[in-house]
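subagent[fold] <- orchestrator: predict structure for attached chain, return tokens only, no commentary.
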Amino acid sequence: MQKSDKKVCKFIFIYYLCINETKTTKKHKAMATLNYNFINATARNIYTIIREDWRIPASWGAREYRATAYNGSYEGMAALRFRVSGFIHKGLVVVAYNEGTDLFDVYLTTLAGKVKKAITDVYADILTRTIDREVETKNDQSAEYGAKVDAFLSRV
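subagent[fold] -> orchestrator:
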């Protein structure tokens, strides 16, 4: 093989790698867009479920809602993350959709992201009550909770 043939082979090999790299990058971008759309749609769905009775998340001081992919029980579950300031839990709540079981997983975390409590396999119809029980009160009919609410409202 002559020197010029080696240059041609090297050029063809590099060109081939560049073409394959470009195709792979386009494929990954398409998959990332698909995941991005799925994550946003799922987060919107979770938000709709939680905000069905808007007074409950308002009592948690829920704010800073973010769509995210959460690495909880399974890699990269579509999730909604938000910050709360309840009587029991102050920090972040992550509600992740588990596609395999068609249920939700709820993670109570610190602001730094350390998981304090994980609740798995939560049905959509009890999602808000489950979060409320862990963030705000174990029993919303108790006299103790009523006293906490009255004390809070008197400061406002």
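orchestrator: received. Logging for downstream: Strands lie at 63-70, 77-85, 90-98, 103-109, 115-122. The chain has a mean pLDDT of 77.
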